[in-house]
Amino acid sequence: MKIYLIRHGQTDWNIQGKIQGSHDIPLNETGRRQAELLAKGMDSRPVLRIFSSTLTRAMETAEKIRSRQKVEICSMPQLIEVEFGKWEGMTWDEIMEAYPEEYKRWALCPDEASPPGGENQDQVLNRCVWAVKEILRITGGREDVAIVSHGATIAYLVSYMMQNHPEVESIIVENASITTVNYSPLTEDFMLLEMNDTSHMEE
Question: Could you write out the three-class secondary structure of 17-72?
Answer without folding.
Answer: CCCCCCCCCCCCHHHHHHHHHHHHHHHHCCCCEEEECCCHHHHHHHHHHHHHHCCE
